Amino acid sequence: KEKEKQERARKAELESSKIVEVTEEEAEAIKAQQENVTTATEKPAVKETVENDTKDKSGEESDDEDSKGKIKPNCGNGADLPNYSWTQTLEEIELRLPFKVNFPVRGRDVICEVERKHIKVGLKGHPPIINCATPKEVKTEETYWTIDDRKTLILTVEKVNKMEWWSQLVTSDPEINTKKVNPENSKLSDLDGETRGMVEKMMFDQQQKQMGKPTSDEQKKQDMLQKFMKQHPEMDFSKAKFS
Predict the structure, then answer these.
(1) What is d(CA 129, CA 190) in angstroms, rounded to the nearest whole number?
(2) Where in the chain is the domain with CATH 2.60.40.790?
(3) Radius of gyration over every alpha carbon of the chain, rounded to an integer in angstroms
(4) Cα(147)–Cα(97) distance, integer angstroms
């Protein structure tokens, strides 16, 4: 009996280890079936990766939608253009315009007219270099200019609204991306306490909105709500809707 048992076990082992011969057609069918199983297993991961990449790219495109076609501001929060450059703080704008002539420029040679929403600059007997409307209003009574080294006009104008950045000196200029403006370059320390507080709050709220976070007023409301909920644990806020 023991011998028969061993013989049956040996035969079963031989049967399980047999090499099965198949035709080429059967081999191709088996190979195709295995590839289909592998592809079906990998597809969801690939699809998820593609969807995530598309989502990330669409998010970036959405963030940059307002910045399309705008140039990066220079180190003075303005722009360096072919004929002139300008910089700004929250209070004022400074224009530097070199006259490309072969003679020393004097004050009486210059045409510099600044209106509430228009700037005209040039030399007498020559076409104006700037003759266009400004995007915002300026204080004409606080405007002054000078000639540096007898060849460069330096014009300083004061803004009416001291709580916003200009994207252009004049409306014919390319726009700068005001989201890239560096507030450290503005003279916040020169503003009075109340104005400075308002400007800093405005800048903080703008940054929060860009990051999708609550503004200072929204955060204040949320803090008050959280405090009220802690003071009244007996109340059920699970079904409450907050706006």
Answers:
(1) 32
(2) 67-177
(3) 36
(4) 10
Among 21-35, 40-54, 86-100, the least confident range? 40-54
In the structure encoding, which two tokens stand for residue 176, read together?
């700068």
CATH architecture of 67-177: Sandwich (2.60)
CA distance 158 to 187: 13
* Whole-number Å distance between alpha carbons of 94 and 155: 6
What are the distances in angstroms from CA 219 to CA 91, 201, 213? 29, 13, 9
Return all residues near 113 (Cβ < 8 A) that are at least 6 apart: 119, 120, 121
**Segment holding 114, helix H or strand E:** strand 110-115
The Cα–Cα gap between 192 and 188 comes to 9
Indicate whether 164 pLDDT > 60.
Answer: yes
Euclidean distance between CA atoms 115 and 45, whole angstroms: 63
pLDDT value at 117 more than 90: yes
Assign 109 to helix, strand or coil: helix
pLDDT of the residue at 21: 54
Question: Which one-letter DSSP state was computed for residue 197?
Answer: H
Rounded Cα gap, residues 243 and 235, in angstroms = 19
Element (H, E) at 218: helix 216-231
| pLDDT score, position 189 | 61
Q: List C-alpha distances in Å: 123 to 82, 83, 151, 152.
A: 17, 14, 11, 12
Residue 58 or residue 161, greater confidence: 161
Q: At what angle do helices 193-210 and 216-231 cross, to 10 degrees?
A: 80
The alpha carbon of residue 223 and the mean position of all alpha carbons in its chain are separated, in whole angstroms, by 28
